[in-house]
Design goal:
The chain is mostly helical and 124 residues long. The chain is 56% helix and 0% strand. It contains 6 helices and no strands. The protein is globular, with a radius of gyration of 14 Å. The model has no long low-confidence stretch (mean pLDDT 92). This is Group 1 truncated hemoglobin. One of its GO terms (molecular function) is metal ion binding.
């Protein structure tokens, strides 16, 4: 899709598509040996809700305001590695491809996510 047609959130398909992306993402994560232990004690309904809000805002939705905890505070003690962050991005890419999101918008999404590596990865 042409980037002139609105923000990534709009090009992606809005709330329903972002919700679908996050729901499918956490389904994959919970079956991924590299990632699932990071979420074993988490309230997954809350995690999905906050992640949807975060992604919507990150993707340019001006109506959504992420109100969750500071990202550094949330991730500091999880000991997330670069390898795990990369796997996170791999799952997002795969799901977005399955959802038939354009290559350009997938690249844009992954660039947005990459900008947050330094507040998520603390185990170098």
């Amino acid at each position: 899709m042409d980037k002139q047609q609105g923000c990534l959130y709009e090009r992606f398909g809005g709330d329903q598509q972002v919700s679908e992306l996050i729901d499918q993402f956490y389904y994959k994560v919970l079956f991924d040996k590299l990632l699932r232990d990071k979420f074993l004690k988490a309230d997954m309904s809350r995690v999905r809700y906050q992640q949807k809000r975060f992604f919507s805002q990150m993707m340019g939705d001006k109506k959504t305001q992420y109100t969750g905890k500071d990202l550094i505070e949330v991730h500091r003690n999880l000991n997330i590695t670069d390898q795990q962050f990369d796997k996170f991005k791999t799952h997002l890419k795969s799901i977005a491809q399955d959802m038939e999101v354009s290559v350009e918008d997938i690249e844009d999404l992954l660039e947005h996510v990459e900008r947050h590596r330094n507040v998520v990865v603390f185990n170098k």
